[in-house]
Every structure is written in structure tokens, then in C-alpha cells.
Amino acid sequence: MKDLLGSRIKQLRLKKGMTQDTFARKIGYKHAGIISEIESGKKKLSSDKLPIVANVLGVDINALFFEEKVLDPRTN
């Protein structure tokens, strides 16, 4: 089963034009390999990293779990 959080992080990272290496360093990892594993669902992201990831990606934590169309109150 595809990891939804991982795929959402990848989607948001690419939208920001950020490489896995740059993203890894900004959230406190030394190597891009961990980002690849998180995005593919092979590794889980620790909960203490969620606020850091959201901040680096410039989104609210909820945006890591839901697409913008779900978060947009105008669509309800």
C-alpha cells in the first residue's frame, strides 16, 4: 500500500522545486536517501519532524495529510 503521507510530502516538495538532498538537510537529515524511503513508504517520518517538514514546505501540518481542495472551505 502506498504511503499517503510520503506521497504528499513528495508532491509538496516538488511543488516547491526542492531536491531530496536540499529537503533532507533542511529538516535535519544528512542524506537524501531517507527522504526517498519516507516518500516511498519504506520508512515512517517521526511525529516530531511533522512541524519541521510543514514549515520547510511552507504549509500547515494538515496540508501534509490532505490535498488543498479538501482544505479549501470554499469547496464545501
What key attributes describe this structure?
76 residues; mainly alpha; 51% helix
Q: What's this entry about, in short?
A:
The chain is an all-alpha fold and 76 residues long. It has helices spanning 4-15, 20-26, 33-40, 50-57, 68-71.
Outline the structure in words.
The chain is mainly alpha-helical and 76 residues long. The chain has a single domain, classed as lambda repressor-like DNA-binding domains (434 Repressor (Amino-terminal Domain)). The chain has 5 helices and no strands. It has helices at residues 4-15, 20-26, 33-40, 50-57, 68-71.
What is the CATH domain class? Answer: Mainly Alpha
Helix and strand element order: HHHHH
The biggest sheet, with number of strands, parallel, antiparallel or mixed sense and barrel status, is:
none
Backbone CA Rg: 12 Å
CATH superfamily: lambda repressor-like DNA-binding domains
Mean pLDDT: 89
As residue ranges, the low-confidence spans are none
What is the end-to-end distance? 29 Å
- For the record, the count of structural domains works out to 1
Annotated CATH topology: 434 Repressor (Amino-terminal Domain)
Task: Specify the helix fraction band.
Answer: 40-55%
The helix count comes to 5
Strand content: under 5%
The CATH architecture category equals Orthogonal Bundle
Counting DSSP E segments of at least 2 residues, the number of strands comes to 0
